[in-house]
Write a structure and sequence with these properties.
The complex is a heterodimer of chains A (361) and B (457).
Chain A lengths: L11 H13 L6 H7 L45 E6 L9 E5 H18 L7 E5 L6 H11 L4 E5 L2 H9 L3 H21 L4 E4 L1 H9 L1 H10 L2 E4 L6 H11 L4 E8 L4 E4 L11 E2 L6 E6 L12 E9 L4 E14 L11 E6 L15
Parallel strand pairs in A: 3-4, 3-5, 5-6, 6-7
Antiparallel strand pairs in A: 1-2, 7-8, 9-13, 10-11, 11-12, 12-13
Helix pairs in contact in A: 3-4, 5-6, 6-7
Chain B lengths: L5 E3 L1 E3 L2 E3 L4 E5 L5 E6 L3 H13 L5 H17 L7 H12 L3 H16 L1 H6 L6 E2 L11 E6 L3 E5 L8 H9 L3 E5 L6 H12 L7 E3 L4 H9 L3 E5 L2 H7 L4 E4 L4 E5 L9 H9 L9 E6 L3 H13 L15 E3 H14 L4 E4 L5 E3 L4 E4 L2 E4 L16 E6 L12 E6 L4 H9 L3 E6 L17 H5 E6 L3
The chains are: A alpha/beta (361), B alpha/beta (457).
Amino acid sequence: MLEFPLDTQPDPDAFLRAALRWHFSPETGSPFWLERAGTLGFDPLTDIHGFADLSRFPNLANELRDVRAEDLIPRGYGPHPEVVGVYESGGTTGAPKRIVLLQEWLDRLLTWSSAQLDRHGVPQNVNWLVVAPTGPHMVGDVIKRQTAFRGGLAFTVDLDPRWVKKLISEGRAADAGAYAEHIVDQVAFLLQTQDIGVLMCTPPILERLARRDDLAKLIHEKVKAINWVGTQMDADTRYLYRTEVFPKAHLYSGYGSTMILGNASERPGLSDDDPCIYDPFSPHMVFDVVDPKTHETVGYGERGQVVMHHVSKSLFMPNNLERDYATRVPGPKGVWQLGDSVADIAPVQEFDNETVIEGVY
Amino acid sequence: MSSGLITLDALGPAGPFRARKRTTVTDVTGAPVAELSLVPKLFVTRAMTALRKASSLPLTERTEALERAGRIFAEEIIDGLSFAEYEHTVARVSGVPIGVVRAATAAIIEATEQSRYAAFQARPVGAVDDWRAEETRNGSAVWTRRGDVFAVHAAGNHPGPHSLWVEALALGYRVAVRPSRREPFTPHRLISALRAAGFGEDQVVLLPTDYEAADEILRGADYGLVYGGDDVVRKYAGTRVLPQGPGRSKMLVPAGVDWREHLDTIVDSISHQGGVACINATTVLIDGDPAPLAQAIAERLALIPSLPPEDDKAVLAVQPVEGARAIEKFLLAKAAGTTAHLGGDGVVEELGDGSAVLRPAVHQLDRPDAEQAGIELPFPCVWVAPWSPADGVGPLRNSLVLTAFTDDEALIDELLAEPTISNVYLGDHPTYWIRPGVPHDAYLGEFLMRTKTVIRD
């Protein structure tokens, strides 16, 4: 049940009950959940009937900041589980949260996400230049394996987002800029010497690449697809890339979270005026968009805070409230999907207090 | 989007650009007037690169094109607006009285007509305009640009400052202007006119942006000009960006001078331009009892009517009520402990449509170095303080314009020697006096140009 073939559509509630049986049975569940089962106030095996009941679970993501990583692995995988890595979430607001990526889940994720790339027309058997965080972050490693899965070589240039955010929060914008140029310099060598078919990077790095005439020319000549991730890109910028800067490359975005062990590509076929919509890998990933104050689901087309559930054999992590804001949109037409899709991801907006500034300007 | 609104596109190196991201420009009642495209950073980067790659028109061509642009600005329908409709719109959105708007647009037109004369007044006497001049055969300095691209973060308080960057175009710079989101109409119209007059789309651009992309305009330029408060001045002092900060213009009435003879000039200096300009008098210092002078100023200023900005007889600036109330609250807090002759209970007079007139305020201080003497606010707000020669030039420092009703040569020498006083007007001249060819805050050419020696066979 938990390993349903990807071309079939499982009964979602039966799937969820199977997952709970796995995660909450003493023989197969993880020490993390088995320890907490008694404190929930209900029995996950008998009181949870379907995805609608997931909201009864507390958001335990904060406990991932100090739990032993070993305790997150379901016992059902035996004494020698196939672990791809232990990864951390951003770590920009306090201590990082930690999660374990098992080979079995990665295989499912890659099969699903690779099919998404095919739908985007991203070519197979080409090399990727991945300018993304590695180290404690998951995305770099996953994309490296995805490249291998699709038959190319992955060239990686590491990005350390925590360092960049630290520099910016300390007002060291010039240092942050120098670091970004250091990244661009490394990218330059790869663009100049290697066959790069797909470029994955963040919007700020892409802007710096576009600014350098020589590198923009190399990208224009070599790169078939550009995958941007990590922060938002406004519609006008996207339009300029598509029409003026890199008109030959297919530009698309991705959105993911360490807490759901994965990512989704933007819905294929969106127009220049559409928002970037992300459809999750259902029913393993389920999205909801809620009012930040009441935690009630907002209406379609309205903005709110993103809530994510992850349900797989590898991990059960319900009700994780993300920092991101998004517009709630229905899932794609004609495709079975549990829960909602999300669009126009943006961090929480902060507004400056307006104060009287002396002077006449 | 909403119909009936004026649409203001960005004016990029490949022509007008209508962005998906737009901001609504409202008038003083909060009613929407226009939709302004906001371009992203990538657009800015590419526009600045295009300016850098472009070439400039030759001197005569560009000053002739500037002259033509002034006529187009004044006479033609641009973006569907006649000149009169444009001026009316500026008054309605900025709250600056229509008479002041007309004077400012006249100054912009004059600046285009006289750009060659005005911009080149800054040239050192030892230098020539062109290496082809006869003088270089025997060796001469040639006045040359320090860079190619000039960026302006414009202010929205008053259309007048747009006459300044025109000089950079005359000097051969390619220019990028980031308009104020409060009043983008003037630079939009002026740049549209410049393009119609012969400037290339890659020679002068209008880049409305949000805050994130604003710095990118300066980053992509060789030299820049920004308007702002003390924080902006501190941030950019001594860099390739020229800050234009608070004016804190002052007037000095020494002993033996009868202020009654100069009352018109004093009152005018405070209230002309609605008090929104940096060349409006902020502080009046008098050797003697400040009370009678403060009282006389207050009596005059109290007579000014409260009118909507588009009224031909309007003198005072208008703001949305909320903004006006914030300024009033700030003033009342800061003025505590001073003697109010006018505006002690507040300065806001609501017009009943969501807008409010900022009425004049006159406060008397008991010492020239009181903290309030340096507070400049965007309406006729004046501080009248006692001064004696024993106080020296200290209280007169940090003035964009200082009008001194004096013929004391030793004092005049001192005022001219004081680096933080930008302009010294002696006798009966209002602080707002200015004309093309004299510097506003040193010549722009001093900042943008340098000399190089050339000798040739």
